Amino acid sequence: MPDFVCPEDPELSIIPLDVKDLISYGIAWHKNNERNEIKGFVEITKQIYKTSLTA
């Protein structure tokens, strides 16, 4: 999985892959779903992604 999804953790091993292909990511949810959990997940994901771009 991409590094912005899972930050460094001493309990995990990182095995780098030599992949030249670019992969696009996205999040989809039903527009009428008002669950705070989903809104929170989307906001946290946006913050992590923006932080990974500036690192």
Structural write-up:
The mean pLDDT is 81. The protein has one helix spanning 36-54. It has one domain (1-55). The protein has 55 residues and is mainly alpha-helical. The longest helix has 19 residues, at 36-54. The protein is built from one helix and no strands.
List the helices and strands and how they pair.
Elements (H helix, E strand, L loop, with lengths): L35 H19 L1
Short description:
The chain is mainly alpha-helical and 55 residues long. The protein is built from one helix and no strands. The protein has one domain (1-55).
Shape: extended
DSSP E strands, number: 0
- Count of separate DSSP helical elements: 1
Number of domains: 1
Offer a few descriptive terms.
55 residues; mainly alpha
